[in-house]
Amino acid sequence: MRIFAKSVDFGSMARLSLLSGLILLAGLAGTGCSSLNPFASSTTVRNTPAPLIDFKPNLALRSVWSTTIGKAGNYSFSPVLVEDSLFVAAADGSIARLNAKNGQLLWRINADTALTAGVGSDGNVVAVAGEKGSVLVFDDAGKLRWKKQASSEVLSAPVVGGGLVIVRSVDNRITAFDVSSGARRWSVQRATPSLSLRSAPGLVIAGSNVIVALPAGKLLAVALANGAVRWEASVSNPRGATELERIADVSGLPLVLGRSVCAITYQGRLACFDVSNGALRWAKDLSSDVGLDGDERFVFAADERGTVHALARDTGLSAWSNDKLQNRHLSAPISFGRAVVVGDGQGFIHFLSREDGSFIGRIAIDGSPVIGTPLVAGANLIFQTQSGTVVALASE
User: Tell me, what's the pLDDT at 261?
Assistant: First the structure.
């Protein structure tokens, strides 16, 4: 039996609610083997978001452009940038290609199915995941090229590269499809833990490998050419007396920084490895349900309680932390010029000093949670919200 928590929107409910739901699931484990939804009834948010503190901004911010793609629902959607094109998707099946510089709509289609994950692209094709594990690939003009079936539901965005479209389904199977025909080229199966978050650990291509984040604290490097497992590493090892305490799923996208790849887990730690062989470089106890970012000096993380951390890239030693955003349900951080930037569950974007973590700017979007992984597109910073706003910000 495998029991999942529902796809969790951490921007609209507290982590404590997640744990309460999982405890409920553990108690219901003997009643059936289907995936259960711990949030089917209303939950009480017990952790009040920290009030926003006043500060004197020293970074001028502006919205460059904004558009709407559609609501994310209970899923996670992140924009993808390829050269000057931005690809976005929504739960209702909407997929769009935008000019990343000015937000101009180049085309917009509907996949004719609800989407559970997306979007992946190499600029030539666009890949998304639909209901019941369907994988759909469109050409660069938005015309359906092929549709295939994964082994189970797909919550992680597909990744496209090396002539392949690669997906990870919730049964922990990684499958590579030929980008032109949709023929299955290879697949890799890993065991599933007895209890895990219903989340979207990501995939990223690094050289000739695809790095796959997995439940139970694992990171996997698989050869693009043939699906051979190059190495497998433990970001953290599940620990605790109960299955609930032993949840240690990798969160968000693995972060490739030069010759290192870093990842973070829920109820575990942040760890960096040699990208060529998986050898551990350093690790630090830290728990997060969103991904990482970094630059030439630091690795940045937002923990589950709302503290933003900067760690030395080479050693993992703490450079600074900012704990003034407690319970605000932060997005993955992103490095942007002299700032480290996070979105929160109320639609605010916070700019922190890269050097010491102090607040240097803040801007509001649409009042809904910032979801997925933000990205830098030239001079613009791109965010997508749960309500479907896609916005480009710039500093002056």
Answer: 98
Please tell me the distance from the alpha carbon of residue 315 to that of residue 311, in angstroms, as a whole number. 8
What length is written for the chain?
396
> Is the pLDDT reported for residue 377 higher than 50?
yes
User: ∠ CA(372), CA(376), CA(378), 5° rounding?
Assistant: 155
Strand arrangement of the beta sheet that strand 269-274 belongs to: 250-257, 260-265, 269-274, 280-285
Residue 25 buriedness (CB in 10 A; 0-12 / 13-18 / 19+)? buried
pLDDT above 60: residue 382: yes
Give the DSSP per-residue string, 145-188.
EEEEE-SS-B-SPPEEETTEEEEEBTTSEEEEEETTT--EEEEE
DSSP structural state of residue 131 = G
CB contact set of 230 (below 8 Å; sequence gap of 6+): 209, 221, 222, 223, 277, 278
pLDDT digits (tens, 9 = 90+) for 130-173: 999 999 999 999 999 999 999 999 999 999 999 999 999 999 99
